[in-house]
Design a protein that fits this description.
It is a single chain. This protein is mainly α and 359 residues long. It has one domain. The protein has helices at 3-25, 28-35, 39-66, 73-88, 96-106, 111-138, 150-173, 175-191, 197-222, 226-253, 260-274, 285-295, 300-329, 332-340, 343-355. The radius of gyration is 22 Å and the shape is globular.
């Protein structure tokens, strides 16, 4: 999906769903409630969002240290914001990683290192988020209007987490399997005409080299880089806690009672599901889902606007900042090429930069 199409789809779907939510939920009573909102608690919600950015940047910084690389704090923060932008314009929020890896590569971090850092950065949060799901099912009866089929979802989460761990272990213990799979994929790309024959050997050589670097860095997380890696895991926990604290603060700001742990557990299911929504950035489902989650704790005439406000505060602000970083650091044209992927041209650029001493 091109950059223009992804961004257009994201905006149109988000605006359409937001408009529908407001049309079917808001009334005069809800406006009066929002006028009386506690500004300090709303400010506290914004502070939690800021903490999420800061902690994510610190996590990237620590993981880079664990992999034997170095990034400035400013660049780590920019990587956090550009992830919002990339995730917003690609299905299943998958575009943030390529943008981050490109910027890290241009900053002296090898492709193998950047892949390892990006994967672990995401996996840490997903595993922590997924670990909350089984507990959510155990206390399902204590959650308001919780009709999400939690126990069936738990089975899916357990399988998914097992697949992640299996893939990580295999990539560490049996890197030769990963190399074989990569070689077969490259051969397939050449056979179907996506990759030109003259670039096949160069791409294979580059990929095999970076698989070795990736494998070495995953091992480094548990050996020479163990201390910064553990610190990154602790930071990831507090980052997730800050993210899950925004919603209860917004509910409290309007004067509605809510149990913190209930709100956190319901969110954990919702946020985990968003990773698998096929629309760019989870648009549509994220806005509608947020309104439904809020409706478990507040009246519907308030839940709609809260859901949109939550989405704007936690995602849209990061997307706007990320778009500024993308234009300044990458440029619109190259950002589009990174998403659409032109193999032969990309391989040529990567190979020439690698020869110039990218890592």
């Amino acid at each position: 999906m091109s950059l223009k199409k992804g961004l257009t789809f994201f905006l149109l779907l988000a605006l359409a769903v937001c408009g529908a939510i407001l049309f079917f939920s808001i009334d005069r009573a809800s406006l009066e409630i929002f006028k009386q909102a506690n500004r300090f608690r709303l400010y506290l919600a914004f502070m939690f969002v800021t903490c999420v950015w800061m902690l994510d940047a610190l996590k990237i910084y620590l993981l880079t240290r664990a992999a034997g690389g170095r990034l400035s704090w400013k660049l780590s923060l920019e990587l956090t914001w550009i992830n919002y932008f990339g995730a917003a314009i690609t299905p299943m929020q998958s575009g943030g990683g390529p943008f981050q890896m490109y910027i890290m590569y241009r900053s002296g971090i090898s492709v193998g290192q950047s892949v390892a850092i990006t994967i672990i950065r995401t996996v840490l949060v997903m595993l922590m988020l997924g670990a909350m799901i089984p507990f959510t099912a155990l206390v399902e009866g204590d959650l308001p209007k919780f009709g999400w089929g939690a126990r069936g979802f738990v089975f899916y989460v357990v399988i998914f987490i097992m697949v992640i761990w299996t893939a990580l272990i295999v990539s560490i213990v049996k890197p030769v399997w990963v190399k074989r799979a990569a070689a077969r994929i490259i051969t397939l790309l050449r056979r179907v005409g996506i990759l030109k024959e003259k670039w096949e050997k160069k791409l294979l050589k580059f990929v095999l080299k970076e698989i070795d670097v990736y494998n070495e860095n995953l091992r480094a997380f548990l050996t020479t880089g163990r201390k910064p890696f553990i610190a990154a895991a602790v930071v990831a926990f507090f980052q997730l806690l800050s993210q899950l604290s925004v919603m209860p603060c917004m509910i409290w700001a309007l004067g509605f009672p809510v149990k913190y742990y209930q709100c956190v557990l319901v969110q954990s299911v919702f946020l985990f599901l968003l990773y698998f929504i096929p629309t760019p950035g989870g648009s549509g489902a994220a806005e509608g889902g947020a309104a439904l989650v809020f409706s478990m704790f507040v009246p519907w005439n308030v839940a709609g606007m809260l859901g949109i406000g939550w989405r704007a505060l936690t995602e849209y602000t990061g997307i706007i900042l990320g778009s500024v970083v993308a234009v300044r650091r990458i440029g619109w044209k190259l950002a589009n090429e990174l998403l659409t992927v032109e193999p032969a041209r990309e391989t040529d650029e990567t190979d020439s930069k690698g020869d110039a001493g990218g890592s």
